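Q: For a teaching session next week I want to show students how multiple molecules come together into a single three-dimensional assembly. I've collected the sequence lines for a complex. Could you give me the predicted structure tokens for the whole thing so I can convert them for display?
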Amino acid sequence: MNILVLPACLLAVVATGLATPGDPPAKVPPPLASWRDTDAKKAVLEFVAKVSDEDSAVFVPPAERIAVFDNDGTLWPENPMPFQLAFALDELKRRLPDEPAWKDDPAVTAALEGNLPALLADHYKGLFRIIELTGSGLTTVEFADRVRAWLATAKHPRFDRPYDQLAYLPMLELLAYLRAHDFKTFLVSGGGADFMRVFSERVYGVPPEQVVGSNTRVVYDLREDGPVLVKTMNDLFIDDKAGKPAGIHQFIGRRPIACFGNSDGDRQMLEYTTIDNPHPSLGLIVHHTDAEREFAYDKDAKSSGKLVTSLADAPERGWILVDMRNDWAEVFAP
Amino acid sequence: MNILVLPACLLAVVATGLATPGDPPAKVPPPLASWRDTDAKKAVLEFVAKVSDEDSAVFVPPAERIAVFDNDGTLWPENPMPFQLAFALDELKRRLPDEPAWKDDPAVTAALEGNLPALLADHYKGLFRIIELTGSGLTTVEFADRVRAWLATAKHPRFDRPYDQLAYLPMLELLAYLRAHDFKTFLVSGGGADFMRVFSERVYGVPPEQVVGSNTRVVYDLREDGPVLVKTMNDLFIDDKAGKPAGIHQFIGRRPIACFGNSDGDRQMLEYTTIDNPHPSLGLIVHHTDAEREFAYDKDAKSSGKLVTSLADAPERGWILVDMRNDWAEVFAP
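A: Of course. Below is the structure for the complete assembly, covering every listed component.
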């Protein structure tokens, strides 16, 4: 519904949320409240204003307002390791007593030793082996239940909070701000789709059908107790680097006009969003500069999140760099 | 926004569309106007009413109201052949003069002879070869342009209309009716996602990101004139039969509560939607019984749309059978 055709009595409702006509107008919090008033915030506000103003020469119809967000390092931390890897390692340890054969697997040895470089070597071969051991053969419902159980009990080693309470507050505000301006917000992440969908709606307000992630085929079976989908490792799709624009096409089928990332794994989707896009577009990189409140890394990232080429290309491409330490007044919700 | 908290002055707007407060209340057309008042229509209306009534014991929150629609034979005809096959054959003929090597290909010979059984034999091997020849190597933008050009010129041999003007009117009404009750409508079809996305929003009101179809990987490339995605035949996923629930999980990530199909290719997604679903659910099969206005076929379908097992299972599963001849007052828009 176009706001211009709303009856006057409704304008206050739109402006103040769910107030009824009798209420005095509520105070609307300023957008992006946890962002400091720096150039990064200004650039975001200006972009959203110009594409959502019908009188603007660069107005973008709501249906085309697609925004894509990387997850690890962009919406929540990826240190000391991506949270999904922490889940897989915890699952491995939990199930190990019942799976004696696992002990002879070199990936398991590396995992139990906490040897992250060994797990990530050879195109993440060890990591995928751990993911296979802890996920393959489960039904999608069983897998989701395990993720849910882990989120309910595990805590981040440094912040001592459940992992799903570590979303960056400024980014949650940004997601909500874009949606309030009729953007459709998607996750486009190297993380597993089946992993992220367990919490994406609750934590980010992003429904499962707007989650694009790494994935494999599932196999349908009609069992005695109903239909199930069984996880396999077939046709593994890694939604990272050049896989990100491919995943965006496969799952969304249109070019985004706004893209948010933090590493070289996001470079290709930043390009796909911002280079020669017929619509105006926004590319933004969260630069981890805040060792005190979060972490500080870029070229020397230890597990994931290496940021070199995206950083080098940013000035020429017009991508906005968010300096976490200076641009964010808060990092996490209190 | 919950309709119960709307100011009174807005209720008329919601009821009548975009009328402004000064207008007299417009006459709202009855829902599913092209459906006759038979059991099929009643079942649909009752299902939608009970899941969208907040006071109902079986109320389903809007976010969970996922409806999936097969395309060929469910939303538009699939005779004398699926429309995408007609497109591929027309493309083959159009490009043949410039591609002399194609003439030696047995699939091309079968296609030029109109030998449909040969093309569909051996798990559609010939058909996929034609799809490869006419699509692989193109960018996604080039491919969409070709589909668009074809839709603008080609006409259906029997109905003498552009193919995209052959959507079933009762099904268009059903799509709109479900969306008016906060259902999110998806295509889940054996057709190619890249083919259907060209017209899905315009013809069905289904945006590209809600189209689940057969697909292959695309390869990202940053060229001189901007980023492109090149079509390949890698990792072919056929969104049919057991592939449909798998595709639903991969792309949507939740179980639908309403499923609409017309053939044995839809049986597994009907099962996945309706068997042991924690929510109430609806399964519906369009039975082609109308040789006069459209086509009549089920077990003897010639190209696609064979209907045997889904029909046999329908009574036990509680799936609604739509008898096209008796249940639909109109088939196509005038």
